[in-house]
TrEMBL record:
Protein name: DNA-binding response OmpR family regulator
Modified residues (4-aspartylphosphate): 51
Annotation: DNA-binding region: 124-222
InterPro entries hit by this protein: CheY-like_superfamily (IPR011006), OmpR/PhoB-type_DNA-bd (IPR001867), Sig_transdc_resp-reg_receiver (IPR001789), WalR-like (IPR039420), WH-like_DNA-bd_sf (IPR036388)
OmpR/PhoB-type domain segment(s): 124-222
Biological processes, Gene Ontology terms: regulation of DNA-templated transcription
Top-level taxon of the source organism: Bacteria
């Protein structure tokens, strides 16, 4: 999953980014409203973490512009503006959640997870495809009773495919949701990691769960009877 942080205070911005990366998220960040708005309009994100008091363009203006463009990316406002009126103003502008500074990073991560679940219409932290089970809180993966050990990048790729289970996902779509803006690479990188996942998920006697759809990309789904 890919997040955008728009926050002008460097220590907080860096702490949030580090925390989210440790949780397996790809993260882009910006210190100014105009740059942040450009990122939000030119890249697909699963969650936007947005301060209100920003240089150049304030957070509420960013939020209203995105909603006017029918951008439905979940937005978590983080702000020291803590009055009921100010929180209502942020939510009415189109925010999905509002977290008052200072806050615990663990709570912020939990709210981000909840927004991702809502985005992909999931009610719980568990994802299941056939006998494959993913716990998005502990980032643990099992196939049947067998625990599967994945690298952070492998897990991020599998989680994204699981949220999109049953739908073909293009290489471009995977790249845009699993990798950060500054990372180099190509569609071959996605193919390589799909190969790694297939090897780790393959257990003797069990069917393949990751399928190739020529011209469309990859599909995580139970085998067709």
């Amino acid at each position: 999953m890919r997040c955008l942080i728009i926050e002008d205070y460097p220590p907080l911005r860096e702490n949030i980014a580090e925390c989210l990366r440790e949780e397996g998220y790809a993260v882009d960040s910006s210190a100014t409203g105009d740059e942040g708005l450009w990122y939000a309009r030119n890249h697909p994100y699963d969650v936007l973490i947005l301060d209100i008091m920003l240089p150049a363009v304030d957070g509420l203006t960013i939020l209203r512009q995105l909603r006017d463009l029918q951008d439905k990316t979940p937005v978590l406002i983080i702000s020291a503006r803590d009055s009921i009126h100010q929180r209502i103003e942020g939510l009415d502008a189109g925010a999905d959640d509002y977290l008052v500074k200072p806050f615990a990073l663990s709570e912020m991560v939990a709210r981000v997870r909840a927004l991702v679940r809502r985005l992909y219409d999931r009610e719980t932290a568990g994802l299941q495809v056939a006998d494959l089970t993913i716990d998005t809180i502990t980032r643990s993966v099992r196939r049947g009773s067998t625990e599967i050990t994945l690298t952070p990048r492998e897990y991020a790729l599998l989680e994204y495919l699981a949220y999109r289970a049953g739908q073909p996902v293009s290489r471009t779509d995977i790249w845009e949701h699993v990798y950060e803006d500054h990372e180099g690479g190509s569609s071959n990188t996605v193919d390589v990691y799909i190969g790694y996942l297939r090897k780790k998920l393959h257990l003797e006697g069990l069917p393949e769960l990751i399928h190739t759809r020529r011209g469309f990309g990859y599909l995580l789904a139970p085998p067709v009877p």
